[in-house]
Amino acid sequence: MTDFRIDRRALLGGLGATMAVPATGFAQAPWPQGRTLKLVVPFPPAGATDVLGRLVADKLGQAWGINLVVENRAGAGGNIGTDVVAKAEPNGETLLIVSVGMATNQYLYARLNYDPVKDLAPVTMVALVPNLLVVNKDLPFNSVAELVAYAKANPGKLTYGSSGVGTSVHLSGEYFQKLTGTKMVHVPYRGTAQATQDLIGGRIDLIFDNITQALPHVRAGSIRGLGITTARRSATAPEFAPIAETVPGFDVSSWFALFAPARTPQAIIDKIQADTKAGLADPGLRAKMDLLAAEPVGGTPAELGAFLQTEMKKWGDLIKEIGVKAE
């Protein structure tokens, strides 16, 4: 799963000042003082998973009075880093922050070295980030309904870009076609930056892009936004109605969640979840997440487990239906 990239230095600027205030409302951590814990990010630095992971790690480490270091273990769509955590000691000292690939990679790759359900325990959902349906500004439609009508009248004519096969940006387009009965041509890129430039230049027609990447171009007038991919409006861009208002059942987001090795004691998992939820309520942390258009969650392990099953069903069925495989 490709991870969209942002300006990590700008977003994390001032983080030390935010975290310097002693934490309150946190019980004593179940690890000795001075212990070093590890949060594995299965993507390179500067992506959304990395930035969110560092925000959470700094908050928890400061609250517990321990070192919680972030380790980037990128490769194979997140599978390398995820496998590291799946095989780690189940003592709560090695955690994983991962995205949609936890639900999709088992269907995209011929073989995984871990089982996403049996080898990893859900801890908490950290955040949801919507995608935004954006189109070339010269196209003859100004709403989702007009886009659907045009696509039905011109099957195979429209092209949509993505940040790679199997990403949420790609699967958003596939899911849209399935629910609307339309047919468009997928054009994969190695990231959305180049795809956005081709969209502006008219070489492709539309993208279900990460809102962080797309919104500045929409507000600058270089591309046109038609709708948000989540079932509710985004606080970051409330002017865009959910695509689901026109296409019932359409609900897609990039999501970011914490997992631990299976068989980690439930008391430790519950502790991490509770303190993550408390940390996500911090105004300084929320302000930084707002720059990502990330909606903090902090739900229970059971809620994350149920969500993962829903995502696996939705995307697994779709991936099997269209027969797509990761490169």
Describe what you observe in this structure.
The chain is an alpha/beta fold. It folds into two domains: 8-128 and 254-322, Bordetella uptake gene, domain 1 (D-Maltodextrin-Binding Protein, domain 2, 3-Layer(aba) Sandwich), CATH 3.40.190; 130-245, D-Maltodextrin-Binding Protein, domain 2 (3-Layer(aba) Sandwich). It has twelve helices and ten strands. Strands 1, 2, 3, 4, 5, 6, 7, 8, 9 and 10 form a ten-stranded mixed β-sheet that branches. Helix 3 crosses helix 10 (266-280), helix 5 (101-108) packs parallel to helix 12 and helix 7 (168-180) crosses helix 12.
Average predicted confidence as pLDDT? 90
Query: Can you tell me the number of structural domains?
Result: 2
- Rg calc: 20 Å
Q: CATH homologous superfamily of the largest domain - what is it?
A: Bordetella uptake gene, domain 1
- SSE order in H/E notation? HHEHEHEHEHEHEHEHEEHHEH
Helix content: 25-40%
Query: Which second-level CATH architecture of the largest domain applies?
Result: 3-Layer(aba) Sandwich
- Number-wise, the strands total 10
Query: Largest sheet, if any?
Result: 10 strands, mixed
Which secondary structure elements does this structure contain, and how are they paired or packed?
Elements lengths: L7 H5 L2 H5 L16 E6 L6 H17 L2 E6 L6 H8 L7 E5 L2 H8 L11 E17 L7 H10 L5 E4 L5 H13 L4 E4 L3 H9 L5 E5 H10 L2 E6 L24 E9 L4 H15 L2 H8 L4 E2 L4 H22 L5
Parallel strand pairs: 1-2, 1-3, 5-6, 5-7
Antiparallel strand pairs: 3-9, 4-7, 4-8, 4-9, 4-10
